[in-house]
C-alpha cells in the first residue's frame, strides 16, 4: 500500500473526494425528526430452494445478507443474524425483521463476502457462529482481517479495489465503493470498504456493499457486463448526512443504468432503522424513480424477505 489513490499511509479515503460527515455531526443527526417504525414485522421463515439446473440461486435473508448458491461455492454476503447492530449486540439499532432464512436452515457456507466493518455488515457474533458451524473462507477489504479473525474465522483473504481473490473456487473481484469504515470514534477509515463481483458460469453478479452514488458505477463496467446487481436502496435520509455514503432509491436506479445491469435487486432496507425515513419509503421511492427513468419493474425490484431469484 505504498502507492495508492485511496490510502495515505495511515487511513483509507474515497478516490472521489467524498468524506462523509464527522462524528461531531451526530448530535445534529439525532435531532432530526424520525418517521416511526413498527417494533416488529413478521417474516415467514423460508428454506432456501435447491440449486437444480440454475447457474445461481440468490435468496434475500435481510438487510445486506444474501445467500448465493452456486455449484462451486455457497456464499453469504455481509452476514448479520444478531438482534442489534452495535457494540456487543446490546447497543445500536434493533432489528424489526428476523432473518428470513434461519441460521440453522443455511446450507454449508463455504465463502463469506464482507464489504466493510460497520456493525450492520460485520457482525462478530454471526461470524463466530459461521466459524463454528461452517469454517468458511472470508474475502474482505484491506485492514479487516484482524477483526474478522477475532471471531474465530481461520481463513481470511484481504483484497484491495480491483484485486481478484486467490483463495476461493469462483472468480471474485473487490470493487470500489464510496463509503467509510469505523467501529468507534477513533478508528475511522483504518480499514477499507468495497463491493464485489462474482463470476458464475458466464454470468456476473455485483454486490455493492454500502456506497453513496458516484461515477464509480460506470468504472465497474470495465470488468464486463453485469447480469445482476444487488444495490442498496435504504438508509438515506437526511441527505445532508447520508448523501456521500448511502444512495437513495433514485440514485440506485441511476447506478443500475450506469452499470448497464441486465437486472438489479434492492437491499439494505426494512430491517434496522438506521436513518430517518419510514420503513416502507424506500420501496415507494424505488417505484417512483423507476417510473421516472423508464426502468421496467422486472429490471429493478426488491424481493420479499426470504424470496429467491433464480439465475439460469
Textual characterization of the structure:
- With 312 residues, the chain is of the alpha/beta class.
- The protein is 17% helix and 20% strand.
- The chain has helices at residues 26-30, 124-133, 145-149, 216-220, 239-242, 249-259, 281-293; strands at residues 56-62, 65-70, 74-77, 111-114, 137-141, 155-159, 172-175, 195-200, 203-207, 228-232, 263-267, 300-301, 308-311.
- A seven-stranded mixed β-sheet has the order 6-5-4-3-2-1-13.
- A hairpin with a 3-residue loop joins β2 (65-70) and β3 (74-77).
- α6 crosses α7 (281-293).
- The longest helix is centred in the C-terminal third of the chain and has 13 residues, at 281-293.
- The relative contact order is 0.17.
Amino acid at each position: 500500500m505504498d502507492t495508492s489513490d485511496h490510502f495515505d499511509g495511515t487511513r483509507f479515503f474515497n478516490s472521489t473526494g467524498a468524506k462523509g460527515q464527522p462524528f461531531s455531526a451526530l448530535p445534529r443527526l439525532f435531532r432530526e425528526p424520525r418517521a416511526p417504525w413498527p417494533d416488529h414485522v413478521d417474516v415467514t421463515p423460508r428454506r432456501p430452494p435447491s440449486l437444480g439446473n440454475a447457474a445461481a440461486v440468490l435468496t434475500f435473508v435481510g438487510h445486506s445478507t444474501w445467500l448465493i448458491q452456486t455449484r462451486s461455492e455457497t456464499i453469504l454476503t455481509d452476514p448479520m443474524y444478531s438482534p442489534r447492530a452495535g457494540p456487543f449486540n446490546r447497543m445500536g439499532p434493533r432489528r424489526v425483521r428476523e432473518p428470513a432464512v434461519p441460521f440453522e436452515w443455511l446450507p454449508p457456507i463455504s465463502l463469506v463476502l464482507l464489504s466493510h466493518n460497520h456493525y450492520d455488515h460485520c457482525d462478530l457474533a454471526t461470524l463466530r457462529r459461521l466459524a463454528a458451524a461452517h469454517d468458511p473462507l472470508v474475502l474482505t477489504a484491506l485492514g479487516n482481517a484482524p477483526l474478522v479473525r477475532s471471531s474465530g474465522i481461520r481463513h481470511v483473504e484481504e483484497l484491495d479495489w480491483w484485486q481478484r481473490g486467490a483463495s476461493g473456487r469462483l472468480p471474485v473481484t473487490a470493487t470500489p465503493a464510496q463509503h467509510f469504515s469505523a467501529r468507534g470514534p477513533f478508528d475511522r477509515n483504518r480499514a477499507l470498504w468495497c463491493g464485489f463481483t462474482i463470476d458464475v458460469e458466464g454470468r456476473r453478479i455485483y454486490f455493492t456493499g454500502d456506497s453513496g452514488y458516484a461515477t464509480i458505477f460506470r468504472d465497474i463496467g470495465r470488468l464486463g457486463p453485469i447480469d445482476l446487481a444487488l444495490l442498496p436502496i435504504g438508509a438515506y435520509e437526511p441527505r445532508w448526512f447520508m448523501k456521500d455514503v448511502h444512495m437513495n432509491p433514485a440514485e440506485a436506479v441511476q447506478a443500475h443504468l450506469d452499470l448497464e445491469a441486465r437486472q438489479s435487486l434492492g437491499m439494505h432496507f426494512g430491517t434496522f432503522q438506521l436513518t430517518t425515513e419510514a420503513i416502507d419509503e424506500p420501496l415507494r421511492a424505488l417505484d417512483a424513480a423507476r417510473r421516472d427513468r423508464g426502468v421496467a419493474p422486472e429490471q429493478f425490484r426488491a424481493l420479499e424477505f426470504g424470496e429467491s431469484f433464480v439465475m439460469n
